Automatic annotation (TrEMBL):
<comment type="pathway">
    <text>Amino-acid biosynthesis; D-alanine biosynthesis; D-alanine from L-alanine: step 1/1.</text>
</comment>
<feature type="modified residue" description="N6-(pyridoxal phosphate)lysine">
    <location>
        <position position="33"/>
    </location>
</feature>
<dbReference type="InterPro" id="IPR011079">
    <property type="entry name" value="Ala_racemase_C"/>
</dbReference>
<comment type="function">
    <text>Catalyzes the interconversion of L-alanine and D-alanine. May also act on other amino acids.</text>
</comment>
<dbReference type="Pfam" id="PF01168">
    <property type="entry name" value="Ala_racemase_N"/>
</dbReference>
<keyword id="KW-0413">Isomerase</keyword>
<feature type="binding site">
    <location>
        <position position="301"/>
    </location>
    <ligand>
        <name>substrate</name>
    </ligand>
</feature>
<protein>
    <recommendedName>
        <fullName>Alanine racemase</fullName>
        <ecNumber>5.1.1.1</ecNumber>
    </recommendedName>
</protein>
<dbReference type="InterPro" id="IPR029066">
    <property type="entry name" value="PLP-binding_barrel"/>
</dbReference>
<dbReference type="InterPro" id="IPR001608">
    <property type="entry name" value="Ala_racemase_N"/>
</dbReference>
<comment type="similarity">
    <text>Belongs to the alanine racemase family.</text>
</comment>
<keyword id="KW-0663">Pyridoxal phosphate</keyword>
<dbReference type="Pfam" id="PF00842">
    <property type="entry name" value="Ala_racemase_C"/>
</dbReference>
<feature type="binding site">
    <location>
        <position position="129"/>
    </location>
    <ligand>
        <name>substrate</name>
    </ligand>
</feature>
<feature type="active site" description="Proton acceptor; specific for L-alanine">
    <location>
        <position position="253"/>
    </location>
</feature>
<feature type="domain" description="Alanine racemase C-terminal">
    <location>
        <begin position="232"/>
        <end position="355"/>
    </location>
</feature>
<dbReference type="InterPro" id="IPR009006">
    <property type="entry name" value="Ala_racemase/Decarboxylase_C"/>
</dbReference>
Length: 356
């Protein structure tokens, strides 16, 4: 059997959730959208269900998959409903919904519901993606407050640049949120992972950690709190062939690596079709039989190549970690023109195996 696999450490996931929740000082929705950033939403939610205050997903399809698996905790739809027809399902499955646009307020006004719905009313405080404008926010809040079928209203917003330490834009978004929502009753939710880790002023009733749950820092720089996270995913495979080459020989597509000395090349069963970044550069760190090593040559669809010259003990069958406990995913990110988010979401084909 092909040895490529992604081990998912559910105990590390629980550890990271506890850290996020404690940091926020209130409650925390575990963000498990996009199949829990590639880690398997159902298994991750089941592993967290005894302690998570709730979950957040991108859409109703993702929420229903969790309900079908028996998850009873609150589930928030981060983009709300995509059309008014979904509202019946939202109530039937006891979901919470973001409201980020005026048409959604109007749809709620037109649609009587059998039970009160919890709404998270989103302000565009400066990211300019979704959210009500400052000019519409208070009016929307009053109109929703007047509806008998709207229950609690949580005030929320989202930061564009919380991963940049001391970025003035985040401070501006915070001030904007405070001034628009002043005097409106109810709880507040602002923090994604970088805000939780880097912006204590933004902590509020509810946090919405995503990336940090999976044990990866959102920061390019070192961060003391992020250093306490434990990697959840270990992507690994094995050496399936070895080449002994003299100096001056090209390796792989496009001759992106040329040997500079007599070199032993190990071919690993892992490629970009598994989600390993295609454009990881020569020297991207890997671990070979638990020792630091490096990628050389261009990553192909099903295979990649590593330098075994300084690993005389290694050969066919040696274990290669692409990222995980020994190779921080953030280091792979730094070598491959991608983001930690995309790195994790891209994992596929390599089967997920759960431990803990
Ligand atoms: C995805 C998402 C989050 C989680 O963000 P991370 O940076 O992964 O922690 C939080 N809030 C909203 C609105 C999101 O879309």
């Amino acid at each position: 059997m092909r040895p490529a696999r992604a081990l998912i450490d559910l105990e590390a996931l629980r550890h990271n959730y506890r850290l996020a929740r404690q940091l926020g000082g209130g409650r925390a929705l575990a963000v498990v959208k996009a199949d829990a950033y590639g880690h398997g939403a159902v298994r991750c939610a089941l592993a967290l269900q005894d302690e998570a205050d709730g979950f957040a997903v991108a859409c109703i399809e993702e929420a229903l998959a969790l309900r079908d698996a028996g998850i009873r905790a609150p589930i928030l739809l981060l983009e709300g409903f995509f059309d008014a027809d979904e509202l019946a399902l939202v109530v039937q499955h006891d979901l919470w919904t973001v409201v980020h646009a005026r048409w959604q307020v109007e749809a709620l006004e037109r649609t009587p519901l059998p039970r009160p719905l919890q709404v998270w009313l989103k302000l565009d405080s400066g990211m300019h993606r979704v959210g009500l404008d400052a000019a519409d926010y208070r009016d929307a809040w009053q109109r929703l407050r007047a509806l008998p079928h709207v229950g609690d209203i949580v005030k929320m917003s989202h930061f564009a640049r919380a991963d940049e330490p001391d970025c003035v834009r985040t401070a501006e978004q915070l001030a904007n949120f405070a001034s628009v929502t002043v005097g409106l009753a109810g709880e507040t939710s602002l923090c994604n992972s970088p805000a939780l880790l880097g912006w204590p002023q933004a902590r509020a009733d509810w946090a919405r950690p995503g990336l940090m749950l999976y044990g990866v820092s959102p920061f390019a720089q070192a961060n003391d709190i992020a250093a306490q996270l434990r990697p959840v995913m270990t992507l690994e495979s094995k050496v399936i062939a070895v080449r002994e080459l003299p100096a001056g020989e090209p390796v792989g597509y496009g001759a992106r690596f040329v040997t500079e000395r007599p070199t032993r090349i190990g071919v690993v069963a892992m490629g970009y079709a598994d989600g390993y970044p295609q454009f990881a550069v020569n020297g991207t760190p890997v671990a070979i039989d638990e020792r630091p090593g490096r990628l050389v040559g261009r990553v192909s669809m099903d295979m990649l190549t590593v330098d075994l010259t300084d690993h005389p003990q290694a050969g066919v069958g040696s274990r290669v970690e692409l990222w995980g406990n020994q190779v921080p995913a953030a280091q792979v990110v730094a070598h491959s023109q991608t983001s930690a988010y995309r790195l994790l979401c891209a994992v596929k084909r390599a089967p997920l195996q759960y431990v803990g």
